[in-house]
Amino acid sequence: MSFALLFVMGASWAVASPLLSGSDEGAHAIKAAAVVRGELRGANTGPRGRPWLVHVPAPFAGAQVPSTLCYLFRSGAAGSCGFSIGGPTSLEQVNTQFGGYPPLYYLAVGLPSLAAPSALGLYLMRLVSVAITSAFLASALVSAFSWRRSRMLVLGTGVAIVPAVIYIGAVINDSGLEISPAICLWVSLLVFILDPPPDGGGRLLTRAGVSAGALVLARPLSPVWLVVIVCTVLALMSRERLAAVLRRRDVQVWAAIVAVCTGLAVVWTTSVGVAVVGRPCPSRCTSAFVTGYVLSHTDTYIRQMTGLFSYNNVAAPLFTFVLWWTLAAALAVIALIVGRRRDALVLVGLTAATIFLPVVIQLGEAANYGILWQGRYSLPLATGIPLLAAFIIGRRSPGLELRQRRLATTAIAAIAVGHAGAFIWSLRHFMWGQGQWSFLHSQWEPPVPGIVLVIAFVAVASSYAWWLRAHLVLGGAPSAPSVAGARGGRTRGDRQAGSQSG
Asked: Who's near 270: CB < 8 A, 6+ residues apart?
């Protein structure tokens, strides 16, 4: 059920957005079409790993140049002047800025281009991306549903899946394979490591292991996010629980698998190099300048992480931002109130890492590529903030969501309204630019009539909210924590984990 709802939401976004309108989508499509034809990286013909020459079907060859889409970077232009895809399917040589990126995502997404090197193929590539991201997001919800002490993680996961997460997964962009596994890893690891079920949490561990492997192979920076996520969760562990976990054979096996994936990712990035299109920072780009620039754009990155689409020129309505930021802030404040000192320190530390790690990364890259940070790059960490906050609330104040059913229901309703608003505003933008609001006729028509898309998305967003509420406040009373668990000692899950590892 979770997968079906999320897939329909993502598929609606995939159909409602003009082809190649996603950020760098044309370059990612070229990379995917080249990878499935055997060119994992292409020929390196320039300094610092760019440009990379690959061979793709002629209909895709012109997709690299964003200027072919006249509505990009223009908030008032409709999607009626998009890139024309068609003609002979013979291979042509073309540059791609992502030649050095890890090939895992592109191997999967590029498959439809083999059968249909056309507009249909691009839509099918989007749907493959939707299926991948929806599978990880649905797995995150299943992990949240499995936590018996509290259902607060259900709400936290709903807040973590912002409209931008659904949108990024609905276009051809490798960030989708980075963000959705990160969310699943956060949820599964939090429950497995800190509050496992009586059966030992084998399925949670499997979800965490698969998510970690996919995450680390997604993008060049992904190993950094994996380290931060794991360290954040471990910082909340007691020594007894850590010892019990490390003795488990299944943990050792998954740790080895993830270590191998991480090694492959690091070797790929260091040996192949990363292709990035950008201009080196001029001489005035001192460390102080870069630091100040990145920090001063934190509000922009937060907006991009929530509801800025396409090339950041299509925005969700104001109420979507207000609703999401209010929910995230409320979770964080309540967590700081009910949590213990260590909980508060870890939550504040994660927030600080989300804000300041981009500064550190840009300080190392600005001299070669300029300052290119985008909000979506931070989402693997940023989504962990509401998840960690919700977990702390559920761990320290079990049953809060049941005692405050009305507030919980209101929060879930706000999530549905925020998703629907973001989708409708984006679709209206591409259909009319800054013109009318009619979805019956327009300057640009999606493959499915606009009015049908609006009705379908509102229906599925409402169903998604009902599904979340059913598991949040109608799932039964939470199980009471043991005294040992409340004091940070060994819980029944710890003792069982220890016995299973003997």
From this structure: none
